[in-house]
Design goal:
By secondary structure, this protein is an alpha+beta fold. Helices cover 34% and strands 20% of the residues. It folds into 2 domains: 2-87, no CATH class; 93-219, Alpha-Beta Complex (endopeptidase fold (from Nostoc punctiforme)). The strands form 3 sheets. The chain has a 6-stranded antiparallel β-sheet with strand order 5-10-6-7-8-9. The chain has a two-stranded antiparallel ribbon with strand order 1-2. Strands 3-4 form a two-stranded antiparallel ribbon. Helix 1 (2-17) runs antiparallel to helix 2 (40-59). The protein is globular.
Length: 225
């Protein structure tokens, strides 16, 4: 595995040194060189494709480096836009402190109707966290869902509340709530009180339970906008 990643790193170094880029959708074992000139922006885009392909290999121990598909240019460009957008989304100190405080309760057991560190349900957890920072909220998940303003999933940031259906996938009603704790190009981390695991911080983008139950995101006024 180390040899495979090393090979890709070496390849990226070569990329930075020579006057060609790889064509879209080539694999390492079947790469066609595209002779320059290309624009500086295009060159940077192609370099990002190689860097992200290296990252994919690092994440997948079964990947064979020579068969790794370079990300397409449009995907690379999308990643650039996401990263630029994320860089511009700086949290207020209030939100940072709120998230830090909320994380101190990771592992606290689930308790139906619970609103204290001895046990939380999903809305009780949010109610307790917000209350400790002087924010008055309602006690239920469907009540919380009526507060704030709707935010696109692509524009979420830490401190936003994310709402889901309950156990019944056929329902259209809010039955669960969490707080977004971190956003990256590959993750939307959600702090929430799970009925089976207690307070957890998990990636919405990889959660088989949360994804099909997603309903909406709401943003409350923390005074940072």
């Amino acid at each position: 595995m180390k040899n495979r990643v090393g090979f890709l790193v070496f390849l990226s170094m070569l990329f930075c040194s020579f006057n060609y880029v790889y064509a879209q959708n080539d694999t390492i074992s079947n790469a066609r060189k595209v002779v320059l000139p290309v624009s500086a922006a295009a060159l940077k885009k192609e370099q990002r494709r190689i860097i992200d392909s290296i990252a994919l290999v690092k994440q997948n121990a079964k990947a064979i480096s020579k068969d790794v598909l370079f990300l397409s240019a449009d995907v690379a460009d999308s990643i650039n836009r996401v990263e630029d957008s994320l860089a511009a989304r700086k949290n207020s100190p209030e939100v940072d402190n709120l998230i830090k405080f909320a994380k101190t309760f990771l592992g606290v057991p689930y308790r139906w109707g619970g609103t204290t560190p001895s046990g939380f349900d999903c809305s009780g957890f949010i109610y307790y966290i917000m209350g400790n920072f002087g924010f008055s909220t309602t006690r239920t998940s469907f009540g919380l869902a009526e507060m704030g303003r709707i935010i696109k999933l692509s524009e979420v940031k830490p401190g936003d509340l994310i709402f889901f259906k309950g156990r019944n996938l056929n329902s259209t009603q809010v039955g669960h709530v969490g707080m977004i704790s971190e956003v990256t190009a590959h993750s939307i981390m959600v702090l929430h009180a799970s009925s089976s695991r207690g307070v957890v911080n998990e990636n919405f983008k990889t959660s088989r339970y949360l994804i099909p139950r997603y309903l909406k995101v709401k943003r409350l006024d923390f005074g940072d906008e």
